[in-house]
Design brief:
Strand order of the largest sheet: 5-4-3-6-10-8-11
Low-confidence stretches: 464-475
Order of helices and strands: HEEHHEHEHEHEEHEEHEHHEEHHEHHHEE
Strand content: 5-15%
Number of strands: 15
Helix content: 40-55%
Shape: globular
Structural class: alpha/beta
């Protein structure tokens, strides 16, 4: 598995490259060279050249058909896997399967539902007040709030105590967020019952009104439900870079709504867990799932939220991200901070896949990474060909077929961020700024692949925000 973990990115990128090469060869074979010179038209003061050559109808049909078959195949297989897990009676490998959980809890009085919120925080004095305020203002308030102060050198712990919440200060933790959460969970989980929910949320996150009420209601109505992850959107501000990130998060939330809450990742911004789920994860470490026995969170990974999602799915757990549970999260204020964050996310996702290998529960994630790899190749090729054409011809040549494809792509980008407001729509319809933002993310993907392959040590990265007191910002 260690060899797979090191080469997973190259495997995915190589497979995507092979698919792109096959498509290119097929296109060349079916289309051939266009004949004649481009046509000329005069539009006002402009001389416009255009070429009506387009791929053959056969090639267009084959490409569209292959894409539809691939997407439908992944969706059908994912549904079959989830259905099988829901109905599984395999207590050895699927102890959190809904059928098993429902049988074990039938007729058992677990007591009233309680909610304990854990907030891991490392030097978060600039945002902890807003986070705690959003919890206090929920229509359904938590019974306990514990700020997990991890190696803090600022006033995070003091501010939390002043606001009347519990503070757990880590001791000797060198394993970042995962290690801090493990320390507090070691003492918390043994005293938790089936109805005592545990929520983990980032210190830079603000809950939207109704989050906790909806989450508790759904957990109360469905004993088989093991975790509820929040849908996140970006905070306001940070100029053009902030809008890029907000558009990205808007599209992600739209995709999850279309999937009817079927989870990609139980986001670290805010997720509610059932204690039974966390206890089974700790018990199955180094057996059914990777990790150190007894640890809830794997301290060796870069993306602990992605890893625990894979862990729960592997154990058969039912997890969702409903549209009623939304949060506002921090955005990266600079390109450098964004680079560090996304490099950690991308590399962490690839390493998690390498650790879990090829399992039915990881099918969607392999397909998702394959799509990213193909997108890297497609976008870089598209932009390269545009530059080559621009410098190779004295006049610009328009291709009506490809212009039509571009118009459809632009329409999709616009519709997918419509809920984000007029700024999101304006940025989407301009197209090229978002294309270059996508290229920036593609470069990060390639960097992550190369770092894994060469064994380069990963950096965590941390962004310190200015301290906010009320509406004032202290620098």
């Amino acid at each position: 598995m260690r060899d797979l973990q090191r080469t997973v990115g190259l495997l995915i990128l190589g497979t995507a490259a092979a698919g792109a090469a096959l498509l290119w060869a097929s296109l060349s074979w079916t289309t051939g060279l266009p004949g004649g010179r481009p046509s000329r038209a005069v539009v006002g003061v402009w001389d416009v050249f255009y070429d009506t050559a387009a791929p053959s109808a056969l090639m267009i049909g084959l490409a569209a058909g292959f894409a539809l078959v691939f997407a439908a195949g992944v969706a059908v297989l994912e549904k079959r896997v989830s259905t099988r897990d829901r109905r599984s009676a395999d207590r050895l490998n699927r102890p959190l399967a809904p059928k098993i959980v429902m049988a074990e809890t039938r007729g058992v009085r677990a007591g009233p539902v309680t909610l304990t919120v854990l907030i891991p925080a490392h030097n978060e004095e600039g945002c902890i007040v807003h986070t705690l305020t959003s919890l206090r203002e929920q229509s359904r308030r938590p019974e306990r709030i514990i700020v997990v102060a991890d190696n803090c050198t600022d006033g995070t712990a003091d501010i939390a105590r002043t606001l009347g919440v519990e503070v757990f200060e880590t001791v000797g933790n060198v394993s970042k967020k995962a290690g801090a959460l493990n320390q507090v969970l070691y003492g918390l989980l043994p005293i938790q019952g089936d109805n005592d929910l545990v929520m983990v949320m980032d210190a830079d996150t603000v809950l939207d009104q109704g989050f906790l009420e909806s989450a508790v209601r759904m957990m109360s109505d469905d004993r088989a439900l093991m975790a509820i992850g929040g849908l996140f959107r970006g905070e306001e501000g940070h100029g053009l870079l902030g809008q890029f990130q907000r558009n990205e998060y808007t599209r992600y939330a739209r995709d999850l709504r279309r999937r009817r809450g079927r989870v990609f990742v139980l986001t670290g911004t805010a997720t509610v867990f059932r204690p039974r789920a966390l206890r089974w994860v700790a018990e199955e470490r180094d057996s059914t799932i990777p990790g150190v026995p007894g640890d809830v969170y794997d301290t060796q990974v870069l993306t602990e939220d992605n890893e625990i999602t894979l862990a729960l799915k592997t154990l058969g757990a039912l997890v969702i991200s409903p549209p009623d549970c939304t949060v506002v999260t921090e955005l990266m204020p600079t390109w450098r901070a964004l680079w560090k964050q996304r490099l950690r996310w991308q590399r962490g996702a690839l390493e998690n896949l390498g650790s879990y290998g090829f399992r039915p529960q990881t099918l969607r994630y392999w397909a998702q990474q394959l799509g990213i790899g193909y997108g890297v190749i497609a976008l870089s090729t598209y932009l390269t060909l545009m530059v080559v054409m621009a410098v190779s011809f004295d006049s610009w040549v328009w291709f009506p077929f490809w212009a039509g494809i571009g118009a459809l792509f632009t329409l999709e980008r616009l519709v997918s961020v419509w809920d984000g407001g007029w700024r999101a729509r304006l940025l989407a319809i301009l197209l090229f700024p978002e294309l270059f933002y996508a290229m920036f993310l593609d470069v990060i993907y390639v960097k992550g692949v190369l770092d894994i392959w060469t064994g380069r040590r990963a950096a965590w990265g941390h962004t310190v925000q200015p301290r906010r007191i009320g509406t004032k910002v202290l620098t």
